[in-house]
Structures are given as structure tokens and as C-alpha cells.
């Protein structure tokens, strides 16, 4: 939806105060049809906290890199996020322990499928 904040297209702080099922905001889909890329829950990533750019994504999927207790990055804001700038897929949160569990953190499962 470009550079203009449109709260009706995402589940964030000014909405209903809890998570919603994927697809609840179809008008907020990306040009590729991806839903809920911002808001709803923070998305866990494999990226370690304070890892410098640039880096190769392949480096993050080695057994050695994924092992251990390193803090990881979350992206995309959540239903709890109040500030529009924090509810973006590119926004990175800070020092999150993979062992902690919160109702505003989650993960994205994706698969390849043909467009409708």
C-alpha cells in the first residue's frame, strides 16, 4: 500500500487488541498476494541480533549458525504495536531470546503455490 499508513489494512495497536486469523485483512495484501506481512504478530527470523549487513542469507541456514542461545531479530510489528513505523515488514526489533514466548510473537510459514 505504498508509503501511506492505512490502519484498516493491518492488525496493529489501534485495532482489536489481539491476533486475528491470517487473511483477515485481504485488502492489505502485497502486490504478490502475500497476506499479513505487517502487524498481527512479530515474525521470528533466523537473523542474529546485531548481525551486520551485508550478509548472505545462506549463511543463516547452517547448523552451526542456528545452534545455541543467540538473540534473534523479529520483524513486522504486531497487534500490540502502536507506532506505524514499527508495523512494517522491514522494521527490525531488538534482542529477543528464542526461548521466550509472547502472544504478539510468531513465525511465518510459506510455501510455493501457483497464483489464483
Question: What does the model show?
Answer:
This protein has 1 helix and 3 strands, in the order βαββ. The protein is low in regular secondary structure and 116 residues long. The longest helix has 4 residues, at 63-66. The two termini are 20 Å apart.
Brief summary of the model shown:
The chain contains one helix and three strands; from the N terminus they run βαββ.
Run of helices and strands: EHEE
Quaternary status: single chain
Overall pLDDT:
82
Q: How big is the Rg?
A: 15 Å
Low-pLDDT segments, ≥5 res: none
Question: What is the overall number of helices?
Answer: 1
Q: Give the helix/strand class.
A: little secondary structure
Let me know the largest β-sheet.
3 strands, mixed
Helix content: under 10%
Tell how many strands the DSSP assignment holds.
3
| Shape field | globular
Strand order of the largest sheet: 2-1-3
Give the N-terminus to C-terminus distance in angstroms. 20 Å
Residues in β-strands, percent: 5-15%
Task: Give the helices and strands, then pairings.
Blueprint: E1 42-48, H1 63-66, E2 72-75, E3 105-106
Which structural traits does this protein have?
116 residues, little secondary structure, 3 strands
Amino acid at each position: 500500500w505504498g508509503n501511506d499508513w492505512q490502519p484498516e489494512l493491518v492488525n496493529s495497536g489501534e485495532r482489536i487488541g489481539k491476533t486475528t486469523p491470517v487473511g483477515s485483512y485481504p485488502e492489505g495484501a502485497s502486490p504478490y498476494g502475500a497476506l499479513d506481512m505487517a502487524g498481527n504478530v512479530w515474525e521470528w527470523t533466523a537473523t542474529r541480533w546485531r548481525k551486520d549487513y551485508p550478509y548472505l542469507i545462506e549463511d543463516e541456514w547452517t547448523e552451526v549458525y542456528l545452534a545455541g542461545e543467540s538473540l534473534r531479530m523479529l520483524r513486522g510489528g504486531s497487534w500490540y504495536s502502536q507506532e506505524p513505523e514499527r508495523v512494517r515488514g522491514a522494521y527490525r526489533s531488538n534482542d529477543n531470546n528464542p526461548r521466550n514466548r509472547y502472544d504478539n510473537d510468531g513465525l511465518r510459514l510459506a510455501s510455493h503455490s501457483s497464483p489464483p
